[in-house]
Amino acid sequence: MNIGDRVRLLHHKEEGVITKIIDPQTVEVAIDGDFRIPVLRREVSIISQSEAVAFGKRPEETKNAVPTQPVYATQGIFLAFEAFNDRELLLHIINNTDFDLLMTFGHEQSGIYKGVFTGVLRQRSSVKMPDIMLVKEFDRWPIMVFQFMYHREGVHTFQPPMLRRMRFKAATFFRSKENAPILGKPAHLFQIDRDDVSNAPATSAPISVDAKNLKENILNPKDKSKTVISPPQTEIDLHIEKLITDTLRRARMNANEMLVCQLKAFEAAIDNAVANGVTEITLIHGVGSGTLRDEIHKRLGKNMFVEYYKDARKEKFGYGATTVKLK
């Protein structure tokens, strides 16, 4: 099962779309618009794309159908590197969403961008890139740049454009092999539209500049002291009371909502550290039941920018912190 797969609940009549892989046994499914529920994998089955065409809806379903807001998969864009032989990989871009994608793909190396492909990637389809990726040149692969615009006829929630720059590390790349959606083949698989990967803005709002004041400030600066930029944090406290200071709001959150909040803060801390060139940070997650620690360790093991992680110094943090070494 993958993000974007359309599924049916086995013991109910509802159908929905997988929006998140919570853990190896549980997925999050969006039903009736955007109402999301956790469901065990064994309690859902994937709906074949050709099922409705071949069988149509059952008479009793049509008769007793209750109008509901359609559920559209908005996530599920993957890169799949398929082995052509033991020396070469083929790159496929997979659209497992319910939107058509106007996309571009290019390489960026030493500040120079080279366009490679542009086109429309239809919903629930894939396209093979013209590149053949050589395994022996893995360390010299360029940064891969992808841009996507979403389209679907009719009424639905607007999806903003997406820009992704991808660079891979051997330590994580070659451990990522699994069955690719749409292709139905084993490949090194990466989802590039996850919630924990921040969108880079394609454009920025125009800035109003007073040319006269700008010239005056350059020629006669009022403050000649250097601007002091605060360094990014290297110790991140993920206790929920540190992230949510509103006591009433915190009291209304269930355990799952707290975990989601803590994981978002964790992902933001890693992204900020990478963006600022920080090589080591410490995540203070506490001991508790170990759920947060285990989930953080699982995500660190899959992060391409993480060299290694270990328990932090016990004399300072006890048993409730993890030190992360970044590449």
TrEMBL record:
<dbReference type="Pfam" id="PF01713">
    <property type="entry name" value="Smr"/>
</dbReference>
<dbReference type="InterPro" id="IPR036781">
    <property type="entry name" value="Smr_assoc-like_sf"/>
</dbReference>
<feature type="domain" description="Smr">
    <location>
        <begin position="263"/>
        <end position="327"/>
    </location>
</feature>
<protein>
    <submittedName>
        <fullName>Smr domain-containing protein</fullName>
    </submittedName>
</protein>
<dbReference type="InterPro" id="IPR002625">
    <property type="entry name" value="Smr_dom"/>
</dbReference>
<dbReference type="InterPro" id="IPR036063">
    <property type="entry name" value="Smr_dom_sf"/>
</dbReference>
